Amino acid sequence: MSGCDQPGLLPVEAALERLLAMADAAPINQTESVTLEQADGRVLAEGLISSLDLPPWANSAMDGYALRLADWQGEPLPVSQRILAGTLPSALEPGTCARIFTGAPLPAGADVVEMQENVQLGDDQRVSFSQGMRFGQNVRAQGQETKVGDCVLPVGTRLGPIELGLAASLGADRLVVYRRARVAVLSTGDELIEPGQVLGPGQIYNSNRRLLCAWLQRLGCEVIDAGILADDLQLTRDALAALDDVDLILSTGGVSVGEADFLGAALREEGELALWKLAIKPGKPLTFGAFRGVPVLGLPGNPASTLVTFGLLARPYLLRRMGASKVEPLGFPMPAGFVWSHAGHRREYVRARIENGRVVMHPNQSSGVLRSASWAEGLAEILEGKTLAEGDSLRFIPMSEILG
Ligand SMILES: Nc1nc2c(c(=O)[nH]1)N[C@H]1C(S)=C(S)[C@@H](COP(=O)(O)OP(=O)(O)OC[C@H]3O[C@@H](n4cnc5c(N)ncnc54)[C@H](O)[C@@H]3O)O[C@H]1N2
Ligand code: MOO
């Protein structure tokens, strides 16, 4: 342990490893066949194997003229056919060229396409090719992208617009995906009321509920909005018992050392509860447990802590349960545009932006503040025990890497 480690704080990697191990132990195995329209954001449960070559036949990459290179000896060539995309050409007559358009099938016998800008059309409609031509130029060979039998998308791929376009290009109209994870979102806290109501003394609006519900939907989960947990043990038990068909109960708030922790009490009674203290800021307290066999993940209630722990821990956990192979966000090294002089015990995820090629941080990094997260383009990772001078390298994780 280095001098900067705080005894008892669980490193972020260790917490993620534990969560992923728990996800691996409780995979959502059920699959369903969905149309491409329904497949966005889902995880592939059966690899997509190509049943055709792509392109299925050689075709032209340009609007121009197709010919056999050997036929061009300096004498203009007559045009023997006109080939539009979607038509079937006849074999190229020797000593001629064919008018051809982008995407149209190459006639048998042709081996090059010259773009129309590079040819001269004589008064007799014969074509002269003045530029030097290279064998195979502007020809897209059959199967150059994909061959019959290729595994184009492996099991575990998260489907997005590109994958759906790719599946469509192979003629697939349905894909087999894992069932969506059913996630119940619970908020705890007597101070919470919902937007639209009049704020009373000591009350705040529930922001975590909307943040998490919207985020979970983006991740391809089915969201069960379980509202605000009542401040009463029996009502808490009843609320949890009603969520017996979900894959995860995700709660926020009440995970630190507060006194009225009915969620914790209910879990201790009828399940299990592990209280973690993570070496992460924001987001130190996190709980993982179960109620009557249903996993429960308790995130800290401070909105920025909810954001960071959901993005870096709960999101990979849920994606893994839904079978995704890539679950961790990409980050890339960037020079710091600020000084970090106090080495901390916890790994900090700073709400930051990139300006003039450097990472700049928002002045308000309070765990209670969401506005700086909305300003931010990403999270800048400052490792525990580290100080930074301007220009030192840090890892920058774009928000887009965790939000979808
Ligand atoms: N004595 C200690 N106090 C605290 C510790 C500690 O170690 N010892 N840890 C602090 C840290 S770090 C965090 S993070 C928070 C975690 O708090 P809880 O998860 O127990 O959450 P609450 O106390 O219920 O709420 C914290 C904060 O967030 C607001 N909140 C809660 N839920 C929502 C919601 N759905 N929407 C908007 N805002 C919400 C709540 O009003 C509080 O202001 O504990 C520290 N304390
Ligand atoms: O971990 Mo807490 O989120 O620092 O305030």
UniProtKB/TrEMBL annotation:
Residue intervals of the MoaB/Mog domain: 184-320
Keyword terms of this UniProt record: Magnesium, Metal-binding, Molybdenum, Molybdenum cofactor biosynthesis, Transferase
GO molecular function, one term: metal ion binding
A GO BP entry: Mo-molybdopterin cofactor biosynthetic process
Cofactor section: Mg(2+)
InterPro entries: MoaB/Mog-like_dom_sf, MoaB/Mog_dom, MoCF_biosynth_CS, MoeA-like, MoeA_C_domain_IV, MoeA_C_domain_IV_sf, MoeA_linker/N, MoeA_linker/N_sf
CDD domains: MoeA (cd00887)
Purpose of the protein: Catalyzes the insertion of molybdate into adenylated molybdopterin with the concomitant release of AMP.
Sequence similarity: Belongs to the MoeA family.
Protein name: Molybdopterin molybdenumtransferase
